[in-house]
Design brief:
Layout: H1 2-21, H2 51-89, H3 97-118
């Protein structure tokens, strides 16, 4: 009971102090209000946004996506080639743990590439 009473008193004092600091009025943050240092996401419905700038940004994102796909498919090819070499070294009775791990890595990377290609 005593802890609850101190907690309530602390909240009342905190609200009272913060009320005095802000001039006794609660201030609402308006939607769309911009603060220094805050990163604003462009609003597509905003008529002030330059359409040309949006097209340039989309073009940059598209080229970056393409670069990542090329790099990942190169890595996928290297992993598959390495897996083939490791499998060629094994016989029908021995299956290396490294081969299984490499196959899992290839599967995950291939799935990632496939999902990125979809959009």
């Amino acid at each position: 009971m005593r802890v609850l009473r101190f907690g309530v008193i602390g909240v009342v004092l905190l609200v009272g102090v913060s009320g005095r600091v802000s001039g006794g009025q609660l201030q609402q943050i308006q939607q769309g209000q911009h603060f220094p240092g805050q990163v604003r996401e462009p609003d597509i419905t905003d008529p002030n946004i330059d359409q040309h700038r949006l097209e340039q940004q989309e073009s940059i994102r598209s080229s970056e996506r393409q670069k990542r796909l090329v790099a990942d498919t190169d890595k996928l090819l290297a992993l598959a080639t390495d897996l083939k070499q490791q499998v060629d070294k094994t016989n029908k009775n021995i299956l290396s743990v490294d081969v299984i791990k490499k196959a899992d890595e290839i599967e995950k990377l291939a799935h990632s590439v496939k999902e990125r290609m979809k959009g």
